[in-house]
Amino acid sequence: MRKGIDVSCFNDGVDWKDVRGAGMEFAIIRLGYGHRHLDELFYKHVNGALDAGLLVGTYYYSYALCPEDAKDEARFTVDILEDCGLPPERLAMGCWFDMEDADEWKTKHDALDPFLLTDMCAAYVEQMEDLGYPAGVYASLSWLEDLIETRDLPLGTPLWCARWGNEPGFPGVRLWQYTDKLPIGNQYFDGDIWF
């Protein structure tokens, strides 16, 4: 079991030495979101985490509305990873497809059908695999239970479950986001456990 955090542009000013000093072993960093939008702090976070001796992974916040959109998000992910010199073997914490609807984009575009969501997750994972980068799916417990048909994902797709509390609540997850209030220094982070 390893402890770590996940970060995005909403976590500016991270003191990566403090993160390491707090016992964190990894950081999963948002690479981008939507139609080829790079997270403006991606390179800074990756370099800071690596310089502090942390293992790294990435996630991509999806705005896909169909499987072809998800494939394009995967191709963009790999374009950026190749540009910054991160081959799969340097991504010990993997690549993750962030499937949620925090700003109701999918709701507004009538894209919350479980079969469609599952097809989009599968399309991203398969495209990443085709490009040489294994990938998994991030979602809340309720999405994993009610909206994503996990049994229909490509065989062996790792899952990252977001659920605040004492356990992930979903069987067989690889990664668990257990809080959004992990204090390190004078900041709060999303806290994660790798099984």
Mean pLDDT: 97
* CATH fold type: TIM Barrel
Structural class estimated from helices and strands = alpha/beta
Look at the structure and give the CATH class: Alpha Beta
What spatial form do the alpha-carbon principal axes imply? Answer: globular
User: How many beta-strand runs?
Assistant: 9
Cα separation of the termini: 5 Å
| Percent in helix | 25-40%
**Total number of domains:** 1
Description of the molecule:
This protein has 195 residues and is α/β, with parallel strands linked by helices. It has a single domain (2-194), classed as TIM Barrel, CATH 3.20.20.80. It contains six helices and nine strands, in the order E-H-E-E-H-E-H-E-H-H-E-H-E-E-E. The chain has helices at 16-21, 42-51, 67-83, 105-108, 114-130, 141-146; strands spanning 2-7, 26-33, 37-38, 55-61, 95-98, 135-140, 159-162, 175-184, 187-194. Strands 1-2-4-5-6-7-8-9 form an eight-stranded mixed β-barrel. Helix 3 (67-83) links the parallel strand 4 (55-61) and strand 5 (95-98). The radius of gyration is 16 Å and the shape is globular.
What is the element layout, followed by pairings?
Layout: E1 2-7, H1 16-21, E2 26-33, E3 37-38, H2 42-51, E4 55-61, H3 67-83, E5 95-98, H4 105-108, H5 114-130, E6 135-140, H6 141-146, E7 159-162, E8 175-184, E9 187-194
Parallel strand pairs: 1-2, 2-4, 4-5, 5-6, 6-7, 7-8
Antiparallel strand pairs: 1-9, 2-3, 8-9
